[in-house]
Structure formats: structure tokens, C-alpha cells
Amino acid sequence: MRIFNTLTMKKEEFVPLQEGKVKMYACGPTVYNFIHIGNARPICVFDVLRRYLKYIGYDVTFVQNFTDIDDKLIKKANEEGTTVAEVAARYIKEYWTDAKGLGVREADYHPKATENIDTIIDVVKRLEERGYAYAKDGDVYFRSRKFGEYGKLSHQPLDALDAGNRIDVSSNKEDPLDFVLWKAAKPGEPSYHSPWGEGRPGWHIECTAMIMKYLGETIDIHCGGQDLIFPHHENEIAQAECCTGHEYVRYWMHNGYINVDNHKMSKSLGNFFTVREVAEKFGYEPIKFMMLQAHYRSPINYTLEVLEQCRASLERLYNCRENLDFALKSATDGEDPGFLSKLDSRRGQFVAAMDDDLNTADAISALFELTRECNTYLGSPRPRSAIEAAIKLYDELCGVLGILYNRPAQDGMAEEIEALIEQRQQARKDRDFATADRIRDELKAQGIILEDTPQGVKWKRA
Fold first, then answer.
1. What is d(CA 50, CA 66) in angstroms, rounded to the nearest whole number?
2. Distance of alpha carbon 125 from alpha carbon 117, whole angstroms
3. Whole-number Å distance between alpha carbons of 203 and 113
4. What is the pLDDT of residues 117-154, one digit of tens each?
5. Beta strand residue intervals within 143-278, DSSP E
6. Which of 17, 70, 333, 374 has CA atoms 20 to 30 A from the CA of 264?
7. Whole-angstrom Cα distance, residue 274 to residue 94?
8. Contact 261, 165 (CB under 8 A)
9. pLDDT the model gives residue 461
10. pLDDT in tens, 376-415
11. How far lies 192's CA from each of 117, 189, 200, 217, in Å?
12. What span, in angstroms and rounded, lies between the C-alpha atoms of 348 and 342?
């Protein structure tokens, strides 16, 4: 597999630190509100990366954190007259509602910043002892310029980095480019005891400390949105490598932005949408599909038309999967090596796309080629072994992409419905069309839609 590494700005052959094993981290949400569609993209994309790595045989340990102490959480708690812990607990619960709706699997670990204060303090102390950090009035800052490679992820020299852009400017700093590791407590804020007095961690140190605790000093893959490259991930590298003296991350992967009707999403423009809002109208799975139908590094333009197209694409995939199940009922004996060869070809096409820097767009194209071939093949009764092989492959590929997870469970009334359909078929053979029409109308009243095909009668719920 080849991965585009933000650190080197080129595709590289993926070679894990330990053969057969992958240590992977993705920055999780700051839990002060519902996730928006921009947040959903890395959540969906890097869930697929993990699925694919497992599919090709890797033992993956995946960590995704929750930032549950932060200025935004404190502001939200103050506005609501509640506690930061209550705000965090509420929105972690809402996160899981959305994540499960999107068909995203839980990570192996979901650490919270507040559960790792001791580890965070230990990392800051080590940086201070090595001369990379300094305390001032209860705050602790990192000396950015002391790390000679600062800027290597964002590919900018120090002088080009805008000290006022997403960097906290403070009179306590030795240099405007320095960033905070530990914040002195302010009245009414949650705080923790530390060697520098009561305070709380800075944002960047949280991820570094949790990576070191759960995955070790060097990991294989670190994922996140493009907006995190600077300063968040840049600062993670600096503090981690100065703390340990080792390489922090081998491969950095960043997804592109989502625009709304060709404009940057922002609350001020009124085009800011949460996943929950969009799902109420379209369901969750079209959102997931939208994230995957483009290459993860490319920008996505979110429009209602795009979501409608995604919903239609999913319907086509669902229909094919149902056709495969239905075809089993009239399957024949025998073999079909030619069709099995076509299945192998589509699997190879899918794997080649995913091996090329997680190209889900081309992988989905392979899935639709498979869909077309299956639908054509099922025009007449076919060998059971061939149909079962197609079902296995279809489920494999959809499972890697994390789609088609809303297939209905076996209908509790299936036997009764099948019996009525059989009665209707017999009535038609007997030319008793009044009875046949009555049964059809009876099923329609129950929301059952019938479709006559050369292989028999298909049914589904409306």
C-alpha cells in the first residue's frame, strides 16, 4: 500500500514499524457540541483506512481521543450554568449516536484528556527538564525555536509562520511562536494540581501524551483534518520528539476540506450544518457515502443534489445485494469459472484502488462495475456456487467501505408473506385473477411491494 505522507509531500510505500502490526491515531472531537459535516469526514475516512488495513491482514491498534477540557467546553458550561464534565458527557453520548448512525466502528481506545492528567504532567515535566519548556506565572510554554525542525510538517520556515494565526499571543511568552503546554487556573475553571500550581493542559499536549501512553513513543500513522496540520500537529511533533528524542509519527495523513455550495462552511455565512441536521432529512448513510465517493485528500462540495445522488447510488447497491439473495432461491447446480474469474478481477481492481493512497473513489467505481456485472449475470438461473461467491465478495468490499450496513434483518413475517405470494402464483396459474389481485392488494396494504421477474416474484417493504 502507498500512502501520501504530509511530512514528505509524496506517496510512500507503507512499511509499519513492526511487521504485521499498525499503530494508528486519529484526532477526535472536542465535545462541546454536535459534530458537523466537516468533522464527519475524517471520522468516516479513517474508519475506512483502519478497516482496509485489517482487510489486508494487519493487526491494527487504533486510538481516537475525546478532548473534554478546553476553552470551548468551559464557555459552553458557563453559558448553560452547568459543569464542563456534564457538557462533555452529553456530547460524547451525542457523538456516539452520530458515529453509529454513520456506521463507524469504535476505536480500540477512546481516551479522554481528563483521564490522562498525570501522563500529561509527566510529559511537560520531561520537556522542562530538557530545557524545551519554561514556566511563567503558572503557565508552561514550549520553546518552538529550540526545536530545529519546527515547521517541517507544514513545510514553512519559522519566519513565514504567522505568530498571530491560531497562536495564543501572551506577554508571558519568550517568543510569540511559543505555545502553551499547561495553563494556569482562572477563577471558576476546572483545574488540576501540578508542579506549577493549579491548572489544566493545553490542547496540543493532550494528544501527544495519550499517544505515548496508549501506542508508544513512535507510531505508524497519525490522521486528521487538513486544518490540524498547523499548529496542532506541528506542535505535537515538536513536543513529542523533544521529549523522547525519537521520531514521533512515520506517516501523516490529512483529509481535505468540505465546502457548502462552493463556499467555505462557517456559522457567519449560515451554511454550517451538523451531521444530525443532515441525517434527519437524508439519513446517515448518504453522508457516509458522500465522504467516500471522492478521494480523501480532495475537497468535497456539499450540496443537496450531491446527497440525493449519494442516496440514489446506495439504493442501486442495496438493490443488487437483494438481487443476489433472491437469485439463490432459483440457483442451479454446477460451476461457472468464467464468472468467478470476473469476481477475482473486480476484487483486484478494488484492492489496487485502495492500495493507491486509499482511493475510495476508484474503489467505489470497482464496486459499481461488480454491481453491473452481477445484475447482468442474474438475468437467468445461475449456479449456486457462483452466486454465493458474488455475495461473499459484495459483502467483503462493502464491509471495507463500511456501507450497506442498513440491510433489514430477516423480516419476522417473511414466511407468511412468502406463503401469500405462493398462493397468488397458484391463483394466476389457475387463471383465478380475482384471487391473485386480492392477495396483491392485501400485501400492498401491508406495505409489501411485489415485482414479477423471470426468476420469480421479488418482494420488499415500501
1. 18
2. 12
3. 9
4. 999 999 999 999 999 999 999 999 999 999 999 999 99
5. 179-184, 199-201, 219-225, 249-255, 258-260, 263-264
6. 70
7. 11
8. no
9. 65
10. 999 899 999 999 999 999 999 999 999 999 987 544 566 7
11. 8, 10, 6, 25
12. 10
Note every long-range contact of 265-268, with CB atoms under 8 Å and residues 24 or more positions apart, other chains counting. Answer: 265/36, 265/37, 265/38, 265/302
Q: In the beta sheet, which residues pair with residue 192? A: 199
Q: Which three cell numbers stand for residue 65?
A: 481521543
Choose among 71, 94, 92: nearest CA to 28. 92
Q: What sign for the dihedral angle of Cα 313, 317, 320, 325?
A: negative
Rounded to whole angstroms, the Cα distance separating 231 from 215 reads 22
Burial of 25 from C-beta contacts in 10 A (0-12 / 13-18 / 19+): buried
Q: Does the N-terminal peptide bond of residue 187 adopt cis geometry, omega within 30 degrees of 0?
A: no
Q: Which of 253, 246, 177, 242 is nearest to 216 (CA)?
A: 246
- Burial class of residue 164 in the structure, from the number of CB atoms within 10 Å of its CB (0-12 exposed, 13-18 middle, 19+ buried): exposed
β-bridge mates for residue 258, sequence order: 300
Single pTM value for the model: 0.89
Which phi and psi (to 5°) does residue 414 adopt? -55, -45
Helices (H) and strands (E) in the chain, counts: 14, 15
Pairing of strands 2-5, 199-201: unpaired
Indicate the DSSP class of residue 162: -
